[in-house]
Amino acid sequence: MRLIMLGAPGAGKGTQAAKVAEAYGIPHISTGDIFRANIKGGTALGKKAKEFMDAGKLVPDELVCDLVADRIAREDCQKGYVLDGFPRTIPQAEALEKAAADLGTRIDYAVDIEVPDDAIVERMSGRRACLKCGATYHVLYNPPKEEGICDVCGSELVQRADDKPETVKTRLSVYHEQTQPLIDFYQGKGVLATVDGTLPMEEVFAAIRDRLGE
Ligand code: AP5
Ligand code: MG
């Protein structure tokens, strides 16, 4: 199964993509996590991406499209994948259509997690992230077993540099301008599945499973 997760920053794409990946035995590919790992590792890609990410803006399409095309061509993606945070612009969606078609495949589902803007800012202030394995927590809604430590890999949890309220506002307006048009794009392809992202995490996941129906 090949699917993408759509939704505003903080809608729960990463949280739900991890559950989908585990339930269906497919890789979870987050472009945000790939960029953060590159920033941490001090790579040339990380250096280029950092200035855009810290400002809450999108990294240019040319830095992300080939990276994803290469990633979905790898062996572990043969049975499918869940893309989280890609595509986010119409040119990225078109590049993904082409990359999937070149592999003789197509995107089966675009899951849109709907959360109103006012709920987003509160979620972001409580988020904690593991930069090593990409796991995501929330101090109230999904706390780690031991404060500040990742349940999965034992690394220290951090607050993301782009989760400051001013940057979250910029990310939301970038989302409305550049990413929201993808909802119509995937609706037109007949693969859109919309879920209410304001429900508790397990209920959001149950709704997604229901829509995927596999
Ligand atoms: P990215 O890392 O993709 O960030 P984002 O889209 O802004 O989304 P987030 O990761 O902030 O939120 P999420 O939807 O994954 O929510 P989460 O599950 O963590 O991208 C970061 C930056 O990288 C971009 O701004 C851009 O610069 C760059 N970038 C990445 N991909 C790119 C691309 N394709 N093109 C160009 N640039 C790109 O949940 C949020 C919080 O809420 C957590 O604390 C969680 O525990 C909690 N939560 C989740 N679900 C619930 C629930 N149901 N109830 C209560 N709390 C919940
Ligand atoms: Mg995320």
Short synopsis of the structure:
The chain is an alpha/beta fold and 214 residues long. It is 48% helix and 14% strand.
SSE blueprint and pairings:
Blueprint: E1 2-7, H1 13-24, E2 28-30, H2 31-41, H3 44-54, H4 61-72, E3 81-84, H5 90-102, E4 109-114, H6 117-125, E5 127-129, E6 136-138, H7 165-179, H8 181-188, E7 192-196, H9 201-212
Parallel strand pairs: 1-3, 1-4, 2-3, 4-7
Antiparallel strand pairs: 5-6
Bound molecules: BIS(adenosine)-5'-pentaphosphate (AP5) and magnesium ion.
Magnesium ion is lined by residues 13-14, 30, 32, 84-85.
Protein model, in words:
With 214 residues, the protein is α/β, with parallel strands linked by helices. It has a single domain, classed as Rossmann fold, CATH 3.40.50. The protein is 48% helix and 14% strand. It contains nine helices and seven strands, in the order βαβαααβαβαββααβα. It has a five-stranded parallel sheet with strand order 2-3-1-4-7, sandwiched between helices. The chain has a two-stranded antiparallel ribbon with strand order 5-6. Helix 1 packs across helix 9 (201-212), helix 2 packs across helix 3 (44-54) and helix 6 (117-125) crosses helix 7. The longest helix is centred in the last third of the chain and has 15 residues, at 165-179. The chain is globular, with a radius of gyration of 16 Å. Bound molecules: BIS(adenosine)-5'-pentaphosphate and magnesium ion. Residues 13-14, 30, 32, 84-85 line the site of magnesium ion.
